[in-house]
Amino acid sequence: MNSVAWQVRKKLIILLTSLICLAVLDSHADEVDDGSLEQGKQLVMARGKGNCLACHAIDDGKLPGNLGPPLLSMRLRFPDEEALRAQIWDATERNSNSRMPPFGKHGILNEEEIDMIVEYLYSL
Fold first, then answer.
1. pLDDT for res 109
2. 33-123: which CATH architecture?
3. Nearest CA-CA partner of 88 in 79, 98, 97
């Protein structure tokens, strides 16, 4: 196979892979309830409950922190929704030196609140 044909084939593979990823992400978006998204956003933005803004930058966030990574492109960073949920539940499971509080493990957030936060973060 000559190099031009290989380059075309490579670009087609990348294009098809991207289209499949977009289709999977779009199919998940149809399952999300707008009310749940709004509640998740409120929890993420709340200074008293989730307080994500203390450490993370996020769109529309006022006075965000910079200790943690910005909360954007979460589906790309956490393709497995359960991995993101586990990170919020207890980040020390993946990294014993994590500064992120174990929100679920310590009862800061309940199961339903964590689910709403995950849905909201996946919508970004």
1. 94
2. Orthogonal Bundle (1.10)
3. 98
